[in-house]
Hints:
alpha+beta; single chain; elongated; nine-stranded antiparallel sheet; five-stranded antiparallel sheet; conserved putative lor/sdh protein from methanococcus maripaludis s2 fold; Elongation Factor Tu (Ef-tu), domain 3; CATH 2.40.50.100; 4 domains; 38% helix; disordered N terminus
Amino acid sequence: MNKRSTFHIAPCRRLAGCAGFALHAVSLTIVGTILLSVQSMAQSTLSLAPVVFEVTPRERIWDGTVEAINQGTVSAQTSGRVAEILYDVNDFVPDGAVIVRFTNTEQRAALDNASAALEEAQARLDEADKEFVRISSMYENETVSRARFEQAEANRAATQARLNAARSRVTVATEQLEYTVVRAPYAGIVAERHIEVGEMVGPGQPIMSGLSLQSLRVNVDVPQSMFDPIREIGKAFVYVGEQRIVAQSLTFYPVADPVTNTFTVRVNLPDSSADLFPGMFAKVGFIVGESRRLLVPEGAVVRRSELTAVYVVAAERVSLRQVRLGGHYGDQIEILAGLSEGEQVATDPVAAGILRKEQSGSIGANE
Length: 367
């Protein structure tokens, strides 16, 4: 009985082992199928973009020097002693703000004298008008001679001329008094101060130098071989760090430098377009033609430390491939090496990276 029982039990154990092995195999098959289904779904939702050649503007870049459009030196227009200086170097000055005051004793006295002379001339003219009216009435009644009438008429004209001259002297005196208060011709920053409080100044003496940072331009010397295409196309960009500023307009100097054989091009920038200061160097790119470039969306590029790469999708597999980048063209970037036309790249690097890890995990599980 014991031997028979043992004989029947042993096959049952072997059958149980076979069933467990079959169940494990079925489980692996199901898991693999699920993983492949998940990967297929993920790949179907993965956004792709083709690598294509596109015609883009061809650009040549040279260095330029930034300068302010509004810059200059304010000079005295009258004589006087410096009474007050309201701004110093590196101060921002609003448009029309008072920057310097002079003593105005002489100018105010001259204005008072001119005003008194004007009042006297006005009184003389009133008297001459009355005299002319009286003589005219008598001349019509033939009680005075024509010579007396002409004398009264000439006296009135001369008095009117003296009144006009008195008014002009008042205008000049008022101007001289206003010149004792120096105002900023435009909003800007003080670059240099040429006077001190207590000094005597005269007409034409420099007072303060300044410039406006609101309106800037870049002067660039370009070779004569590139001058014609630059002038014909008339498009330029100024590069400040990662910022690309479109030039507002271009001004071309008509004469070349006889030493360097270069033409100066003035690139005018939009107001308040960048953190630039006069005297700085800036990169200026001029459009000189067109060329075919291999482009991909900029969002598809992965940057990890010194590695620059994209996720390439081929034969339902995702791989990370290193590339060499060129310039930016709108929301796309040029690929100099690492890709070929017609390949597909993932525009969402995060989703592509997750899918690549899932594919690597499924390969390990199948093995």
